[in-house]
């Protein structure tokens, strides 16, 4: 079964109706049908939460998190294994720490990272597969 890992932009793009919204909607539909599996780190969801709160307010950020929790995805806690995987990536590549959690999770579950963040380019084909999402308008 194919596995995907959402980074923060994938979620932002979906909720802000960016060009990648249709791609994310299609992937969510496949997950609902149990044709694929989707993962996201709670650390990356925390990034989504604070950015939505800054832009739209705390109430909207809480609602967004509750909405995402209802998605057909597995939210992965920052366990010892997850922290170590993120730390291994961060030690080798100049990524933001939050991005290293998404990369570490993708590596650990052998999933395809959904992102548009060019910061991940050095990892592509070395450590993980990336499905590049359309950028902001």
Strand content: 15-25%
Low-confidence region ranges: none
Tell me the CATH topology.
Rossmann fold
CATH superfamily: 5'-nuclease
Radius of gyration, rounded?
A: 14 Å
Query: Helix count?
Result: 6
Spatial strand order of the main sheet: 3-2-1-4-5
Shape: globular
Name the structural class.
alpha/beta
First-residue to last-residue Cα separation = 32 Å
CATH class: Alpha Beta
Q: Please describe the biggest sheet, giving its number of strands, its sense, and whether it closes into a barrel.
A: 5 strands, parallel
Characterization of this structure:
It is a single chain. This protein has 137 residues and is of the alpha/beta class. The protein has one domain (2-132): Rossmann fold (3-Layer(aba) Sandwich), CATH 3.40.50. It has helices at 8-15, 21-32, 42-56, 58-69, 80-92, 97-109, and strands at 2-6, 36-41, 74-76, 112-115, 129-132. The longest helix has 15 residues, at 42-56. The radius of gyration is 14 Å and the shape is globular. The termini are far apart.
Give a short summary of the structure:
The chain is α/β, with parallel strands linked by helices.
